[in-house]
Amino acid sequence: MSMNKYNQKNKAGFSSSGLLLLLLALLLGVSAYLTFQNWKKERICAAQLAAIYDAVSRYEIRQGILPALQFYPVDPASQEGSLRLFLMGEGVRGDDAVCPSSPRIFRKTGQTYLWNDALNGQHLSALKEPRWMLVEMNALSTDVPPPHWGRYHVLMTDGTIRKLSSAQLREMQIPRAIE
């Protein structure tokens, strides 16, 4: 009789341990998918920053100085001096001015990188130490988390892309909003 009850239990559905294993497998799968998506966005951001550096370098070779861009224009899609319009003029996709890991509300503006306007009209070769060239706009607020695993991508004047924490941004004197 006890064997008969056991068979009826199995026919009725999953055991609690089987259901727990199924839920665990589902959670692991979702976690792996989200991790992959974040990694992919991080790689895209780094590739875009490299493309921006190439465009800025080509401009400097042609013009003899770095472009005069705005720190952050009011309207990146139409305002002169916006990084987005500069990139399009250099044959680079304007969308490269948008980090895919930034919050959607920032991405809608058409530009999520901030330009170091102290570099306007400078010469890369004249800079003795690498300086920051671009940083993600999330860095301006402590209310918006860093987009890349707790860090920000920063394009340097030597073409490297550094992944920096909030504390490291402060050390580099990258502008931040009131904390």
Instruction: Enumerate the spans where pLDDT stays under 50 for 5 or more consecutive residues.
Output: none
Average pLDDT, rounded to a whole number, is 86
| Total of domains | 1
Number of helices: 5
Give the total of beta strands. Answer: 4
Placed side by side, the strands forming the largest sheet appear as 1-2-3-4
Distance between the termini: 71 Å
Order of helices and strands: HHHHEEEEH
Oligomer state equals single chain
Q: Strand count, sense and closure of the main sheet? A: 4 strands, antiparallel
Specify the structural class.
alpha+beta
What's the gyration radius in Å?
24 Å
- What percent of the residues sit in helical stretches (DSSP H or I)? 40-55%
Shape: elongated
Relative strand content: 5-15%
Question: Could you explain how this protein is built, in words?
Answer:
The chain has one domain. It is built from five helices and four strands. It has helices at residues 2-12, 16-63, 83-89, 104-107, 166-171, and strands at 113-115, 132-136, 152-156, 161-164. A four-stranded antiparallel β-sheet has the order 1-2-3-4.
